[in-house]
Description:
- One of its GO terms (cellular component) is membrane.
- It catalyses: a CDP-1,2-diacyl-sn-glycerol + L-serine = a 1,2-diacyl-sn-glycero-3-phospho-L-serine + CMP + H(+).
- This protein is mostly helical.
- It has helices spanning 25-49, 53-76, 82-107, 114-138, 156-163, 165-171, 180-195, 215-231, 233-264, and strands at 150-152, 199-201.
- The protein has a single domain (25-137, 146-204, 213-262), classed as CDP-alcohol phosphotransferase transmembrane (TM) domain (Four Helix Bundle (Hemerythrin (Met), subunit A), Up-down Bundle), CATH 1.20.120.
- The chain has nine helices and two strands.
- The protein is globular.
Amino acid sequence: MTDLFPPFAPDPDEPRKRLFKPVPFRVIVPNIITLIALCLGLTAIRLAFEGRFEPAVIAIVAAAVLDGVDGRIARLLKGTSRFGAELDSLADFVNFGVTPALILYSFVLKDLKSLGWIAVLVFAIAMVLRLARFNVMLDDPNRPEWQKNFFTGMPAPAGAVTSLLPLYLSFLGVPMDNAAPVVLVYLLGLAFLMVSTIPVYAGKTLGKSVPRHWVLPIFVLSVAGFGLLVSFPFEVLTAITVIFLGTIPLGVMRYRALAREHASRPREPEPVVPPPVVPPPL
């Protein structure tokens, strides 16, 4: 029997199979946070279909917080990757485009039937278009440095948290029996803000350097803000939403002022490139 099945001897000259390089754990951590946020968004849809709107709203807010954390952790750990960027965009579309619109449809827009569903579609499509434009603008090398402190249109997490304002108000006792047309107009208005070119202040330069005398007050304000959010979540979310919407005109004015200042600066002369030297014909 041993003659029928001789032992296999590998060819010593045969090239070895190429193995994939191990992935550092610091690259995996931000993606895990993104996936947790995606699970929260999907769970919020289930909670809304079950009529449990309060935990659904909390899940969306938690997903928005994690969305603001994963990118910063990736840059802190030097674990940014193209895969993580694409995963983050897909998760943002689900969490901040599909989920809030479905929650509002299940809450009040279903009373408008087809019109309510059209508003859901418009909001979700506006969100995916806004994310696609954001990804394209990241690769624009000609964008001035001062413009990077502004979003073009309303950012995705802000659009989701802001869109849930009717739910915040209902939790505070505001009647929503006949508010479906108002909610429809409000949702379409947010969709327009997301796909528009209206500049929205990003605040990316905040936190890079803090004066020493501001450190302790920032600690106290952070603890007080967290305590207020835990104790009065929907009052705080309502105030944040109203303040954010009110700051959009201020951001537009600041953007225009910086644009005029940038346009008034003398442009640096472009370097003169000498023409190529053509060798004489032989």
